[in-house]
């Protein structure tokens, strides 16, 4: 009885070891290939190219329950094959024992079986095609108040589904932030994934924090959250814009004031020149010639008769009419012949 019991235990152990090692034995016979969505991949049916007299080579995909395999493409020496679904996306090379598949879709992922028949033997190869698609650069949005920040990360057009990973800098204890929502959406046409994740950060735990997220090999830019309550990035930007606008307005007003002041000064000079008249002034000595001087229009006309009603004009110099900031000058005297 003990001998029978021992044999049963030994047999059970062998069965367990066989079942445990079965996946490794199967994976050893499966060739792994990777293709990217929209790209092309070559499925190798065999590495033995020295065998001649190839009769046919079929590439198919097994059914869900192991039955009803789906024919992909192939080669036969005596007849031409017409694949239906993969006519414009596959090409079989019988010399290299390969099949090329392009315009890869996520639905192309899975196990492929190559059935090769020679004149003397038959061979089967299994190929596992894994399909990938790079996720877009994640987009991060931040919404903060005085207590916490809600940070959302999103990325799309990726395959297979990936989880979003958060990277706080400096590192935070898990008690200071938590995942609020994590979801994904599959496009009904392309079968690509869009993933979303939102976290809540407790801003009372310390100073401002830099956050980034990653999905697959795509990494977002760092975003600053939990700014001090004295201000936020938007407040600082607004203050800088307002200060710049005020400075520009002051500069324009100062320029306008200087322009008007210069224009008014020029008008005063022109008015002074308009109000002055150049007249000859007789010399008290008959032996000296008469001189010309500027006098205002308000004095007697040049052709007025002499008498008490028309006093003799007093010579004026220009510096009494022009502003003191301008250089004063005197018109040169004109020498006329003596007045008889």
CATH classification class of the domain at 29-132: Mainly Beta
Give the termini separation.
173 Å
Q: How would you spell out the order of helices and strands?
A: HEEEEEEEEEEEEEEEEHEE
Query: What is the helix content?
Result: 10-25%
Radius of gyration: 50 Å
β-strand number: 18
The assigned structural class equals alpha+beta
Count helical runs: 2
CATH superfamily of the domain at 29-132: Immunoglobulins
User: How are the strands ordered across the major sheet?
Assistant: 1-8-7-3-4
Backbone shape: elongated
Q: What CATH architecture label of the domain at 29-132 applies?
A: Sandwich
Low-confidence stretches: 1-27, 307-324
Major sheet description:
5 strands, mixed
Oligomer designation: single chain
CATH topology tier name of the domain at 29-132 = Immunoglobulin-like
What's the layout of helices and strands?
Blueprint: H1 2-28, E1 30-36, E2 40-44, E3 54-61, E4 70-76, E5 90-93, E6 98-102, E7 110-118, E8 122-132, E9 139-144, E10 148-158, E11 165-169, E12 177-186, E13 193-202, E14 209-215, E15 218-219, E16 223-225, H2 233-275, E17 276-281, E18 291-296
Parallel strand pairs: 1-8
Antiparallel strand pairs: 2-6, 3-4, 3-7, 5-6, 7-8, 9-10, 10-13, 11-14, 12-13, 14-15, 14-16, 17-18
């Amino acid at each position: 009885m003990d001998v029978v019991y021992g044999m049963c235990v030994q047999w059970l152990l062998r069965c367990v070891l066989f079942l445990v090692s079965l996946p490794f034995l199967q994976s050893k016979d499966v060739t792994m290939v990777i293709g990217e969505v929209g790209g092309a991949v070559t499925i190798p049916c065999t590495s033995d190219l020295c065998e001649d007299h190839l009769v046919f080579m079929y590439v198919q995909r097994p059914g869900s329950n192991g039955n009803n395999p789906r024919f992909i493409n192939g080669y036969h020496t005596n007849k031409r094959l017409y694949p239906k679904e993969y006519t414009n996306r596959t090409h079989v090379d019988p010399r290299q024992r390969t099949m090329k598949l392009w315009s890869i879709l996520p639905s192309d992922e899975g196990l492929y079986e190559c059935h090769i028949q020679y004149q003397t033997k038959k061979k089967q190869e299994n190929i596992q095609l894994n399909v990938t698609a790079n996720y877009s650069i994640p987009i991060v949005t931040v919404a903060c108040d005085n207590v916490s920040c809600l940070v959302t990360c999103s990325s799309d057009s990726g395959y297979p589904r990936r989880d979003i990973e958060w990277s706080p800098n400096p590192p935070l204890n898990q008690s200071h932030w938590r995942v609020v929502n994590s979801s994904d959406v599959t496009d009904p046409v392309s079968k690509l994934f869009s993933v979303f994740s939102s976290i809540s950060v407790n801003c009372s735990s310390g100073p401002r924090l830099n956050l980034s997220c990653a999905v697959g090999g795509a990494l977002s830019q760092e975003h600053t959250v939990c700014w001090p309550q004295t201000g936020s990035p938007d407040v600082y930007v607004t203050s800088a814009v307002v200060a710049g606008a005020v400075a520009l307005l002051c500069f324009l007003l100062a320029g306008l004031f200087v322009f008007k002041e210069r224009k008014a000064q020029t008008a005063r000079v022109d008015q002074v020149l308009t109000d002055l008249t150049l007249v000859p002034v007789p010399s008290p000595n008959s032996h000296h010639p008469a001189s010309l001087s500027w006098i205002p229009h308000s004095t007697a006309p040049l052709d007025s008769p002499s008498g008490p009603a028309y006093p003799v004009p007093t010579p004026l110099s220009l510096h009494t009419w022009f502003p003191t900031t301008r250089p004063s000058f005197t018109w040169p005297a004109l020498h006329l012949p003596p007045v008889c």
